[in-house]
Backbone:
């Protein structure tokens, strides 16, 4: 008999690629994770992991078991949801991990909606970059994520996650006052090919969006300045240090001193925002109203 708790450990190791990182995510010691994986290999009669230095990858048998683990764990989430519904659970806490502008755009309005429609649901917010919230959900640190599409993100249809699309947000070009393109009503990304750039650090989903927009326009941006803070990017642009692409919601309420903001034309200059929870948990009587409130706020 395969212990489903060990399947959760196998999935964490597959997600994090090291025993140490998986142990940290699961609040276990590395030795405990290794012991549970060894027991799982004994239960199945197969070697499940290839170990190379500090990293691990799944064997073919491990990949087969992981596919079944995703189905089993999703079914367990559904069972918990149905039991919670049976118990008429109308009150409790839901932890939502979201990036800053996602909090402002949809999560805060959703919390206000829930205060009227489901006063027993308490939402606890965890500020997390768009690429950090999904691992928090998969590791059980959060119940829901408000996240953005980025290279390497779990795709739509991933067996571990249930997703609800929320909104697509354009990027605007932030140019120094007096820039030759500042007189244009819109700016094509290709027109910025010869400029110095201000961009988020690699690993930030917005960095991926900027890189993709430039790639589709046929060039690689000459990034001279890096910051994950959009206010800093705008300030640098205002000082004439370069140009930037910034999500429109991040510019809302910001002092736009010495810069000109123009809509961007061309493909790729936008980000798609979605909500996600562990597959099977979307029907939980506490999670479902939060998903519905997020969708209503986005609409």
Residues:
């Amino acid at each position: 008999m395969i212990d489903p708790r060990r399947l959760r450990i196998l999935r964490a190791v597959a997600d994090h690629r090291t025993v140490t990182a998986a142990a940290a995510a699961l609040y276990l010691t590395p030795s405990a994770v290794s012991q549970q994986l060894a027991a799982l290999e004994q239960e199945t009669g197969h070697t499940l992991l290839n170990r190379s230095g500090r990293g691990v990858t799944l064997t073919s048998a491990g990949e087969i078991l992981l596919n079944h683990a995703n189905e089993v764990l999703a079914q367990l989430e559904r069972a918990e949801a149905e039991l919670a519904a049976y118990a008429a659970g109308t009150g409790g806490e839901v932890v939502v991990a979201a990036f800053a502008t996602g909090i402002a755009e949809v999560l805060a309005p959703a919390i206000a909606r829930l205060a009227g429609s489901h006063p027993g649901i308490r939402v606890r917010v965890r500020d997390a970059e768009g690429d950090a919230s999904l691992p928090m959900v998969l590791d059980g640190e959060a119940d829901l994520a408000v996240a953005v599409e980025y290279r390497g993100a779990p795709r739509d249809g991933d067996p571990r996650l249930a997703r609800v699309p929320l909104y697509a947000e354009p990027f605007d070009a932030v140019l120094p006052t007096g820039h030759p393109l500042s007189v244009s009503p819109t700016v094509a990304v290709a027109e910025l090919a010869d400029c110095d750039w201000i961009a988020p650090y690699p690993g930030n989903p917005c960095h991926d969006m900027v890189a993709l927009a430039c790639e589709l326009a046929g060039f690689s941006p000459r990034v001279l300045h890096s910051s994950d803070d959009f206010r800093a990017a705008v300030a640098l642009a205002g000082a004439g240090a370069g140009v930037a692409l910034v999500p429109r919601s991040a510019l809302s309420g910001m002092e736009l001193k010495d810069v000109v903001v123009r809509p961007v034309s061309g493909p790729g200059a936008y980000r798609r925002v979605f909500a996600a929870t562990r597959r099977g948990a979307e029907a939980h009587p506490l999670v479902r109203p939060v998903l519905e409130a997020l969708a209503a706020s986005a609409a």
Summary: The mean pLDDT is 89.
